UniProtKB/TrEMBL annotation:
This is Two-component system response regulator CreB. Keywords: DNA-binding, Phosphoprotein. Residues 3-116 form the Response regulatory domain. It comes from the Bacteria. The keyword Iron-sulfur does not apply. The lineage of its organism: Bacteria, Pseudomonadati, Pseudomonadota, Gammaproteobacteria, Pseudomonadales. Residues 122-223 bind DNA. It comes from Pseudomonas tehranensis.
Amino acid sequence: MPHILIVEDEAAIADTLVFALQGEGFGTTWLSLGAAALEHQKNTPADLIILDVGLPDISGFETCKNLRRFSDVPVIFLTARDAEIDRVVGLEIGADDYVVKPFSPREVAARVRAILKRVAPRPSPDLGAGLFHVDTERVQINYRGKPLNLTRHEFRLLNCLLEQPERVFSREQLLDALGVASDAGYERSIDSHIKSVRAKLRLVRAEAEPIQTHRGLGYSYSPGHS
Ligand code: CA
């Protein structure tokens, strides 16, 4: 069941959306602040976000810009004024659609369905003979059918290794994949991320050792040891 995050400070509007979306079988979460929405999306990613432009803390535009630094989740803006619409339509914000207030909640639910249908077929490369499944939208990797509880850095690290089986990545290259500037202190942090990822893989399969250490060189993903 797709989960929709509604970010809207007017309770009456949020209520009608919650009602319409739940009526269509969607799960919903309602938040009234942009900052809270960003935090929420980092921890428990929704499948789509309905985002009011006029929020009490940071604007919906600002919220969306911040969101785009770590997520490609589809966003539908709720706009109240013509000036807002112009900016949304300008597409500089990274929205997928917008709805002008006052709106019909059923119309919004229909847009949600349409967008989710559009983004749904997201074929993931068959990594390691299907042992790993990477869902970049949810920032989630499944190993042998079980979700790994990875941090964002661990996700990027493992994803990078999985994309090129048997390739040996240096610590510096892996830092690049994390989007972290390389220096001596950070290179050692790769080792601790790897250690943590390995521990999480072993929670699924005790003898799993798909990440190989290459002394003096770095790490690789080896499907044969999965
Ligand atoms: Ca508002």
